[in-house]
Amino acid sequence: MSQPSSSSHLSQITRAQTQSSWLHRAAHSRLRRSTPFDWLFALVLAGGAGFALSRYHAFMNYYDKLVLVCAVPVFVVLGWRWKPVRPLMIGIAALSLSAIGIYHGDLSRADNAFFLKYFLSSQSAILWMSALFVFATLFYWIGLLSRSATGAAIGSKMTWAAVLMGFTGLMVRWYESYLIGADVGHIPISNLYEVFVLFSLITALFYLYYETHYNTRALGAFVLLVISAAVGFLMWYSIARDAQQIQPLVPALQSWWMKIHVPANFIGYGSFALSAMVGVAYLMKERGVLSDRLPTLDVLDDVMYKSIAVGFAFFTVATILGALWAAEAWGGYWSWDPKETWALIVWLNYAAWLHMRLMKGLRGAVAAWWALTGLLVTTFAFLGVNMFLSGLHSYGKL
């Protein structure tokens, strides 16, 4: 009886050693393939983080510094694996630091300095982001309907430019909040205005990655539609509620948990939205609408699956972080608050989708319709709860 058990144990050890060896070889191979430009990029990021620590350490607590230091290897690996994102990172840093230099500690210069007033203040940069997303949507559709590679290429470049301006706007808004007052300063992910900007940027970034990975721009027409809808809400919200104004954090949000919970949440939301729009493209392709201009059903199915898998992973992490934050802020991990309840519904929906995919081979129109329905559930959890329900998360009401 002991022999099979021993044999099984040895087999497990062998598999573990093989996997470890494979990972080691893969990491070693990655390092060997690294070019001088890869290491220069890593050096620039490390130098930038060092500059930020030395220049702005007075505005950072322990957790801010830890996040900044840990972000360097993460962004280095991202830049090595996805090279188009390198100039984006450098551009965001350059424009943000330029804006900070022009402000020179005086917030009133936003109305007087030309480049701040029309390009680099947070409101100006976010307006540029919004306009570029809308025009990118238009050009993607022109490219798709007319089979114009030029139209799609312009749409892609505009999307990259929109992401550049949007992240610059968020970085500058962060600095502006401290110019208003040290007690007001906070990371700009605290209200609906700011998280709609974040949602648009994350969704666009994920799309741009898939665009590069699958070498197709046909999906831009669909994914940019949901981003343009978010931009439309953002513009209405700004005009109707003056939401672009920077406000002090409510007490419940004055926590370092917010800095990791909210981004993880919106990586999930952005991925789920992307999967839904890919689902729309799948259903159209299956019914012969624009079928000769869209990627194959297998590619669409793969993008849909990967988007939901990534979104589910981050949404799970965000839910756990939210529970830990709730325990610290309200004394309990779970209170069946409407926002928490609907977050659970979203999680269960995509958990069921992935279970059916992995266990039962879910594919085709059913998977696409389910992904599209998931967008409605997610939208209500994201926005509808704030509009129609109240609870401990009432600071996010419209």
UniProtKB/TrEMBL annotation:
Localization in the cell: Membrane
Organism superkingdom: Bacteria
Pfam assignment, any one: Cytochrom_C_asm
Membrane topology: Multi-pass membrane protein
InterPro entries reported in the protein's UniProt record: Cyt_c_assembly, Cyt_c_biogenesis_CcsA, Cyt_c_biogenesis_CcsA/CcmC
Domain Cytochrome c assembly protein: 190-393
Positions of transmembrane segments: 62-80, 87-105, 125-146, 158-175, 187-210, 222-240, 260-283, 303-327, 339-356, 368-389
Keywords, ordered alphabetically: Cytochrome c-type biogenesis, Membrane, Transmembrane, Transmembrane helix
NCBIfam families, per database record: cytochr_II_ccsB
Name of the molecule in the record: C-type cytochrome biogenesis protein CcsB
Protein species of origin: Paraburkholderia edwinii
